[in-house]
Each structure stands twice: as C-alpha cells, then as structure tokens.
Amino acid sequence: MKNLQEATERICELKGSLIAIDALLPALLETLPPAAHGALLHSFEAHAEAARTIMLNTPISEHVLTVFERDIARTQALLARTAPACPAPDPGRTAEAVLLASTRIATYLGPSLLTGASGFFFRRGERLFLVTNRHVFADEASGHFPDRIEIELHTDAQDLTRHAIFSIPLYENGLALWRQAADSAGAVDIAVIELMADRLPRSTVLQAFDAANLDPGGEDVAVGDSLTVIGFPLGFHDTVHHLAVARSASIASAYGVRFQQQGYFLTDARTHRGSSGAPVLRRRHAGHGDDSLLSWQLLGVHSTRMDMRPRDLDEDESLGLNCAWYADVLMVLTGSP
Fold first, then answer.
1. N or C end: fewer C-beta atoms under 10 angstroms in the chain?
2. Contacts of residue 293, Cβ cutoff 8 Å, sequence gap at least 6
C-alpha cells in the first residue's frame, strides 16, 4: 500500500466482502432442503480444516488465525442449529481396520487440482508416514509436479460421514519433503512423507500398517496366491463414508524374485488410474480376527499397469498385469533421517 488512505480503502473493501458472504449463508440455508443442511455442515468442517492446515503452514499473524477460528465457530454454530438431528450411529458397526488405513490423495499445483491417487498409512515407532507412489509426488516423464496434496481423514470412529481434508505441502524452501529410494536397477516407485501428529485434525481416526504387517508369519507366499488391492480407481469410492474399495488380484510372477531385475512383482488384477499407491495385501491364514489389521500381510505398493510394447492394439487384449513394488523398502524409507 502506498499510503494510509489506500490501506483504509482496502480494509473497507474486505469488510464489504465479508458482509456479502454473511448474507449468502442464510440465503443458502433457506434455499436448501433441510436434509441437506447436515451435509453442508460436514462439508464446511472439512474445508475449514483444509484452510486451517494451509494457514498453519504459512507465515501468518496470530490475529488472523484468531479471527478465522472465531468466525469458523460462529458459522458452525449457525449450521448446527438448522441441521436436522441424525440418528445415533450404531456403536457396534464401523469400518474394517484395513479401510481406515487407506486414504484418497488429490494432487494440486497452487489452487489447481491435477490428479487423484491412492495411499495408506505406515507407522514406524512413534512416527507416522503416508505411503504412495513416487510418481504421485513428481513424474518427470509426464511433467507432473504438484506442490501439495490433500488427503481425507475420518474424525469419528462411529459416524464415518464425518471427515476432514488435510493439506500437506510437498516442498519447503525449495526442497522436497518426501523420501524416495533407488536400488541397483534405478528408482523405486514408492515414496513416503512424514505426517506431524500435532498438525493432524482433532479427533483423527486412522489405522496404520507397521513392520509386523511385512512379516509373512511363517506362511509361504507363492505365485497364484489371492491378493486384495485397496484403493480409489478413477477416484471411485464410498463418497458418503469416505472409504476405499477393494479389488481382487493374484500374484502373477515368482514372488521374491525381482521381475526383469526390477524391484517389483506382477499382479493379475483389473486396475485403473487412481489406484497408484494402493496397498497390495494378502490375507493371513491364521492367528488374527477378520477385522484386525494384523490379519493382513502388506506385500507391495501398486504402481502401474504392465503391457507389451509390440502388442497389436486391434487384435490383442491388454495383458491385465500390474507392477507392485515390494513393500519391504518401507523399512528403509521410514528409518532415521
């Protein structure tokens, strides 16, 4: 601002804009059917949490944060008064742990949405990580370079409709915040980014795989074994409860052998864009309840579909095979910095 007059005029403009927005909310409530008020409240809370996350990771004054929290609380109270009372959720019914360990990822460059992907949580001691493919965070071949991602987190173990959108920056001072790995054959298409527990939305409900899920538990793993891929193909999922879907698969190459000397094995499954970063799981045969996360062995991370370059696109169907990078690399990626 060049002078005090310009600053005063700008403040007046902002006040006018806020009054106009305040007038919009009651108009929306009058227009929307009462049944939609509850959905509006949940959506507002989720987007408020996303805005809060961005502000906490941005140099901004405490006064702005205080005013933001005051107005968020005021709007929540107004929406809560008009939202119809919902029946109490059944305390005996909730999602399986494996579904609460997976999350939908949206990549952004500034305000622009770029792509959708899948991811899951992995815990190493007291530290929590988000796992997905490296090409979700950066992909030179396609020119894909987002600067942040958003994930969905449940905030109520019983009412799965309640959730928050959590924004995660991918860079700080020009340096990437994620970890990636390479082996003798080149880059491994798995990346992890650490989540700071004190920055997660209040009442976050999630499950996380850990080192115990990498152990086969004395069971043999072999070609032909049945697998499950938990993800968000083409972004498809239960949009009411914010839960992923499962696709059946099987091991399609010698497990434990690096296919074509690369750090992955093949799976036979019907997959789509948006499944990148999904956990590839095998159900253990003994020792755990059906809903326990320990009933699953984490074998790999789904990356991309595998096909043959010389395939005749008119005469030959797609092979229907996929690359799953071996998950044991997570012990390297989540080790001490």
1. C
2. 97, 98, 101, 207, 208, 209, 213
Residues in the chain: 337
For tokens 């008009």, name the residue: 82
Contact 286, 298 (CB under 8 A): no
pTM above 0.85, yes or no: no
DSSP string, 211-264: GGGGS-TT----TT-EEEEEE-GGG-SBTTTTB-EEEEEEE-S-TTS-GGGSSE
280 is written with which tokens? 């590839």
Phi, psi of 81 (to 5 degrees): -70, -30
Going residue by residue through the chain, which has 337 residues, state the pLDDT in tens, using 9 for 90 and above. 467 777 777 777 777 777 777 777 777 777 877 767 777 777 777 777 667 666 656 666 666 766 776 777 777 767 766 666 544 445 445 788 999 999 999 999 998 999 999 999 999 999 999 999 999 999 999 999 999 999 999 999 888 988 899 999 999 999 999 999 888 778 899 999 999 888 888 889 999 999 999 998 888 999 999 999 999 999 899 988 999 999 999 999 999 999 989 999 999 988 888 999 999 999 988 655 567 888 999 999 999 887 656 656 556 566 779 999 999 999 999 988 7
Round to whole Å and give the CA distance between 241 and 171. Answer: 30
Cβ atoms of 326 and 263 within 8 Å: the answer is: yes
Dig out the tokens for 122 from the structure: 């992995």
Strand partners, 192: 131, 179
The answer for residues whose C-beta is within 8 angstroms of residue 166's C-beta and 6 or more apart is 49, 50, 53, 150, 151, 152, 153, 200, 201
Print burial letters for 30-60: b (CB count within 10 Å at least 16), e (below 16).
eeeeeeebbebbbebbbebbbebbeeeeeee
Read off φ and ψ for residue 264, nearest 5 degrees.
-140, 165
Contact 42, 161 (CB under 8 A): yes
H-helix or E-strand spanning residue 128: strand 127-132
DSSP letter string, 171-192: EETTEE-SEEEEETTEEEEEEE
Q: Can you tell me which residue has the tokens 């059946």?
A: 248
**C-beta separation of 57 from 198 below 8 A:** no
List 179's β-bridge partners, or say none. Answer: 192
